[in-house]
Amino acid sequence: MREFEHFPNLVTMFFTRAREQGEAPFLWAKRGGGWTPISWAQAAQQVASLAASLKGLGLEPGDRVMLVSENRPEWCLADLGIMAAGCVTVPTYTTNTERDHQHIIEDSGASAIIVSTPKLAQTVMPAAIRATRTHHLIGIEELRVGQATGVAIHSWDALVSAPADVAACEAQAEGFRREDLACLIYTSGTGGAPRGVRQHHGAILCNVEGCVDIIAEDFGWENEVFLSFLPLSHAYEHTGGQFLPIGLGGQIYYAEGLEKLAANIEETRPTIMVVVPRLFEVLRARILKQIEKQGKVPQALLRRALALGAKDLAGGVPVWDLPMNALINHTLRPKIQQRFGGRLKAMVSGGAPLNPDIGVFFHAMGLTMLQGYGQTESAPVISCNRPKTGLKMDTVGPPMKGVEVRIADDGEILVRGELVMHGYWRNEAETARAIQDGWLHTGDIGEIDPQGRIRITDRKKDIIVNDKGENVSPQKIEGMLTLEPEIFQAMVSGDKRPHLVGLIVPDPEWAIEWAQANDEHYDMKALCDLPVFRSAIMAAVDRVNAHVATTEKVRKITLTPDGFTIDNEMLTPSLKIRRHVIRAHYGARLDALYGG
Description:
Layout: H1 10-21, E1 25-31, E2 34-39, H2 40-56, E3 64-68, H3 73-84, E4 88-92, H4 98-108, E5 112-115, H5 118-130, E6 136-139, E7 152-155, H6 156-160, H7 166-173, E8 181-186, E9 196-200, H8 201-218, E10 225-228, H9 235-248, E11 251-254, H10 261-268, E12 272-275, H11 277-293, H12 296-314, H13 322-330, H14 332-339, E13 346-349, H15 356-364, E14 369-374, E15 381-384, E16 403-407, E17 412-417, H16 428-434, E18 435-436, E19 439-448, E20 454-459, E21 464-465, E22 471-472, H17 474-481, E23 487-493, E24 500-506, H18 508-517, H19 524-528, H20 531-545, E25 554-559, H21 579-592
Parallel strand pairs: 1-11, 3-4, 3-5, 5-6, 6-7, 10-11, 12-13, 13-14, 24-25
Antiparallel strand pairs: 1-2, 8-9, 14-15, 16-17, 17-19, 18-19, 19-20, 21-22, 23-24
Helix pairs in contact: 1-2, 1-9, 2-3, 4-5, 8-9, 12-15
């Protein structure tokens, strides 16, 4: 098995792989209807040129450079170029408002900003002009400016084509240390203003080394291909979708967008996919719908496959089921696997809790699913399921290599190791609360099973305590609700109340079919006001109620036609619901469900 080197910093890891790979393809983007690559050697030259150009603009080691871009090859090149100059990358979401950008620019003290498109510049430019420290704005695409604004505008093409010595840049980078600050990643957060997490080179490298260890031992490390589609401004994609492929010497394809994701998967045939649970839920729903249309035989095969998948995870497929398992291996599973490109080693779920039923479903389809666990403050991966320790879908696996985990007296998961952030940027009070005696207090409640796997039981701050003092996990119930075909999104409520109530966003596709079958005009707002439609949704809720404890049953619901989105700030960019925002908007309706 190939040993993974102990690199002094992320830049050295990149230049090492670039020397090894040479003219082999590295970064791919769809241009003119076809996939076009940038080689490792080309990337190394552009990174060295950008680093030299940033220094030429007067940036000094430790200066912060904000990066605002959709996923594309230039994102990776910019990130590496900033770090190669000794500066600190400050990734931000493309969905940020002008006010969000203003907060991050001022809080980080960014000296320069790299923005990808004129459209994104519309929200970045006003914030940059008002900023006190920002002097440079670099447009990956041409930025049209009518007059001087106090911020110098620069062309990306000019900066990445400037003369530079790759070997000299690499030699200089060898002086960077693992404890040096690499990036400030602002947590999207489910409440409050975003805080800058200080991720050092060693934190991300610790993550990469732990992930490579799993891939090498459990799957074999060879010619890895990744498809990048989660926001690179999120720590999960930044580490798992960018620096892990770099560490593996792999290739990265940049998806055209979520609407073309299924087609891009079939075209690029990834070997490893980094995904959030909500996308798995969508993919599962689409597969189920297609099989449902194919008739009774495929439906029967699906039911048998799910039963066999559950048995396999529980301890293995019994001998008497092997003939049926063989039949499914030659009929149903190859078709599903082909939709994922046909060479997928593993799909890794992270960013939010995964409903175990989702994991069982994909395992039953012959696709290996690993659930990981972490947070931005741990760069971000803490643990991950792996085949060699036994896949158990209600756990997030054992801690990764180099990571210590223990459970506090109150059940909170504590983490120690090089992966732990050096604190929040310019926020000593929050840092002191998060890191105590070297242990990161995750805010998650959990336990460790006899095999050393971590099981998350809830989020400390998200626990609902009813009026009897009993604790209820809202995420568990919401996860079960959104598996029902009638329900697209859900939030349950019930703190200090006698029982749970729920806010439900009906599934649009299901609602269209329901309206046709019931001779109703499809208008989601009107349907939500229709008692018979509400009863149909409540029937789905009751199916969930049949499988949960009395304290977990959702007794009443209210419907909304308006989904939780990133744009309306009810979802974080990693697709977690923002409870405080949803409650501020719908709190009165939820409270009204309790009557007088």
